[in-house]
Amino acid sequence: MNKILILAFVIGLVAGESKTCTYSNACIGESGTPYCINGQCRACKSNIDCSPGSFCRTGSCVSASSGRSCNSLQFEYDGNPIFPTMGQDDQQFCGSLIYVSSSQIDIEWMGFCIRGKCAECIPDYDLSLVDEKTATFFRKYWDRTLMFPGTICENSQVVNSKSDLRSQLSILLDLPLAVGGSIIGLLLMICCLLTTIVMCYYNFSRKKQWDKYKIK
């Protein structure tokens, strides 16, 4: 009995590990982990690879913590932002910061602080709603936001656009977009094949009917 339990535990550990890879395209067929990063099949390379409302952290998609209290970024006269100080007011930043050093900061994701509340996005992604320096900063670091093509802003949260068929299929099938595209291609091939079969049958029927009236 103990041996069975130990074996089940080992199998569980192995199953929980991500698959190893040796080249960039090695993970394309892996559902949920299509990117080869540092020898492991991972879920994402950047924020755009994650579902709406999530950001990429070391190859995994993490839910963004919006809706909490925040303070807006302040900008110096040259347009550079004044980031929160680690251990002091960094929890008031609308987004997620990594302090590489005291002078180097990596932005995992950032949103907009609207009336003291952290929002993932602004209506219609319209940067004219904020001041010029803020708009310039967000345009420069757009890839650090959660606002990408195929998404819309609904109640200050990023969601899939209902008109984006590809995104809807991707969520429905829980597959990467590359695989989703292959499935759509397969469906189109089946439709073409069925159309060809129908046309062949139609032509065969017409030929049969014509043979009946043909002068012998």
Report on this structure.
This protein is α+β, with helices and mostly antiparallel strands. It has three domains: 18-49, no CATH class; 56-163, no CATH class; 164-205. The chain has helices at residues 2-16, 132-140, 165-173, 177-213; strands spanning 35-37, 40-42, 54-57, 60-63, 74-75, 81-82, 95-99, 105-110, 112-114, 117-119, 151-154, 157-160. A two-stranded antiparallel ribbon has the order 1-2. Strands 3-4 form a two-stranded antiparallel ribbon. A hairpin with a 2-residue loop joins β3 and β4 (60-63). The protein is globular, with a radius of gyration of 26 Å. The chain starts with a helix and ends with a helix. Mean pLDDT is 76; it is low at 1-16, 165-179 and 206-216.
Mean pLDDT: 76
* Largest sheet composition: 2 strands, antiparallel
Assign the structural class, choosing from mainly alpha, mainly beta, alpha/beta, alpha+beta, or little secondary structure.
alpha+beta
Provide the domain count.
3
Unreliable stretches (pLDDT < 50, length at least 5) are 1-16, 165-179, 206-216
Strand order of the largest sheet: 1-2
Q: Give the number of DSSP strands.
A: 12
Order of helices and strands: HEEEEEEEEEEHEEHH
Shape: globular
Portion of residues in beta strands equals 15-25%
What radius of gyration results from the CA coordinates? Answer: 26 Å
The end-to-end distance, rounded to whole angstroms, is: 85 Å
Oligomeric state of the chains present here: single chain
How many alpha or pi helices? Answer: 4
Q: Classify the helix fraction into a percent range.
A: 25-40%
